[in-house]
Structures are given as C-alpha cells and as structure tokens.
Amino acid sequence: MTRRKIYTGAVILVIITSLITFILTNSLSLILPGGRVIVSRNEYSLMKQYQKLFEVRRILKNAYVDKIDTSKLVDGSIKGMASSLNDPYTVYFDKKDYSDFMTQTRGSYAGVGIIVSADKKGHIVVVSPIKNTPGEKAGIKTGDIIISVDDKKVSGNNLDEAVALMKGPEGTNVTLTILRDDKTMKKTLTRETIVLQTVDSQMLANNIGYIKITMFDEHTSADFKVALNKLKSEGMKGLIIDLRDNPGGLLDECVNIANELLPKGIIVSTKGRIESKQYSSKGPGLGKPLVLLVNGGSASASEILSGAVKDRKAGVLVGTKTFGKGLVQSIYDFNDGTALKYTIARYYTPNGVNIQGKGIEPNYIVELPKNYVLTDKPDLKEDTQLIKAYDIINSQIK
C-alpha cells in the first residue's frame, strides 16, 4: 500500500468520525434499518426529561375510564407548564381564550366591562370598571375582589380563565361573588357588547385642556393625537390627562402618546433575560403645563406614562398611588388559533425604578371625598383631584 493510499484512507476515517460525532452531538436524527433512530445528545436528554409526561399521556389514553381527546391533554399540559411559573400574566391561550384576548385589544368584546388583575396574594382584584358598562352600573368598584364566577371559584393563578368566564354572548347573565371590606356579595350582570372609546376630551375654563384615557388599545394614540391637536387649535394653555382607573394596555400606544408630551429623552426601559430595549421621545414635547391624574386603578401602561412624566419633570402627578404593575408581556402566535402570552421583561422608569408591586407616588397626594364616584365628565365642583390639577395649571398660566 502506497503512502498516498494510506493518507487517503486516513482522511476518509477522519470524515466518517466527524460525521458520527456530529450525529451524536447535534440536532440531526438518522433513521436506520428496522425503524431505529439515532438522535442527538440534546434530543435524548430532552426526551428523558419529559419521559414522565409521555408516560402519563400513554396511561390516560390507554386506561382512563372514558375515551380521551388527546388534543385536550396536550393543551392541558401546556397550560399547566405556563401556570407552574406562578405568574398570572403568563398563560397559554386556547382558541377561544386567544380570540377573546385579541378582540379586547382591538376595542370591542361581549362581557361585563370589568378590568381585573392579580395581586401578590393571588386574588383577582378589580382594577376598574369601564364606564357605562354592566360592571359600572352594578356598582362594582376598584379594589373589589372577585371570588367566584357563576359559583366557580377563581383566583389570580387562573386570571385569564376567570376573564373568559365573565365573557359570553350578549344578553346572557353572569353572577359574580365579590369580597369588599370583608363582606361578600353577589351581583348578577347581563353581558353587553363593550365598545371601548378610550379617549375623550374637552376644553375647561381658562383654556385648560382635559383628555381622559380609559385604556391603551390599538387606536388610542391616534385618537389622542386628534384630541390634542383639536385642543391646541382652540388655544389650549395647559393640559390635564386623566388616567384614573386606566388599567393599561399596549406598550407601543403608550410610547406614542409619551412622544407627544415629553422632550427628547428616555420614556421607558425594558430589561429581560434575552433582550432589553429603551424607548425614547423625539421631542420637542408639549411645551405647556401638564398634570396627570392617577389613582389605584392606574396600572401598567398608565404607570409607564406617569413614571416618564414624573421622572422627566415634564409635568406633575395628582391623586393617589398607582396600582404597581411593572411587567411586560409578549404574545407567541402558534398560527393555529392558539398562543402563549408570557412575561418577557420588567420595565423601568427613566430614573431606573421598577414599580412592580410598589406603584408610583404622585407629586401631590389628594384623596377624593368619601363616597364620591367619578363620572364621565370633568367635575370642578366636587372632584378634589381634578380641582387640584386645574389650580396647579391655572397658577402657571396666569
């Protein structure tokens, strides 16, 4: 055998050895005669990790007393995986849940008009009832705790399931059991189509503008810009933005509104394990006195806007401490009608503060009169928070 043949054989041996190593250590599966399969080390490790899950599926499919829909087993296992994180904002949506969720962010759905969230104790807490909806008409208030829906117990650990239970065809009834001030009560509500008109505006005395934002859906920033430009064309000298009982919504909508109000600089930063982002305003900002009204029902995107205005000293906050939701969620669409909503980051105000579980303290703490109920229209006679905001701006424009 010549040296050339020996060299060629050695090269072939190296190539074969490298191929086998690649097969055993990377994501390549090789089907062998007889149906046997070679899988990578990573795939084998993953199979061992989830072996018990597959075994449970096999047992239930073969031996459970009734015939089983295996697709439901898959959905249930995914839901359980998401809920094991004990994060009420991370949840797997089946087709119905995802449809309901997308309908709400688009601005309309059939339900009772109650925005809810989960607190640290695992309760489902009413962030705010939406104006002129069955929830508000029934007297449901911010801070109420929902114990059950149609006598089915619910908690913050299955928040999206509880929301789905409250929704349903228009004209049908749903009964909520509520805890308020250590007393329980039942309220039966008739579902309606909830059309979310998220922006309302008018000019107050002395050319002080007033814009109320009820939530941040996909039309909010465009509607806000229209309202703001109208007030400017009417000679607005200062602006009050009412975020009370605004539960939040879409981050991009909030950022777009902040861009109309803030000078050039940071609006909010998000920090996650995989990716971090910083959102900034282009300027020049509003350039007029600005006050934001906030309370315990102001959450999420409302707090992003409030934190940016306060930290950047573009205006002041009046009212009571905000709700305290400093987490950001993303949606992974599986393109089969289902999706995973999961927490990807915490957000931080321009001063680097994460308000999760803490909320934002306003510059001026002002309580509403006892038993006073906020209305759709600005009230400069009894709404002490609005009166304070008006006086602050009025003193700056004189």
Automatic annotation (TrEMBL):
GO cellular component terms attached to this protein's record: outer membrane-bounded periplasmic space
Domain called PDZ: residue spans: 98-167
UniProt-listed SUPFAM superfamilies: ClpP/crotonase (SSF52096), PDZ domain-like (SSF50156)
Claim: Ribonucleoprotein is one of the keywords in the record: no
GO molecular function: endopeptidase activity; serine-type peptidase activity
Membrane-spanning ranges: 7-32
Pfam family, one: PDZ_6
Keywords from the UniProt entry: Hydrolase, Membrane, Protease, Serine protease, Transmembrane, Transmembrane helix
Keyword Protease set for record: yes
Biological process, per Gene Ontology: proteolysis; signal transduction
Entry's family note: Belongs to the peptidase S41A family.
Protein's UniProt name: S41 family peptidase
Organism, as annotated: Aceticella autotrophica
Lineage of source species: Bacteria, Bacillati, Bacillota, Clostridia, Thermoanaerobacterales
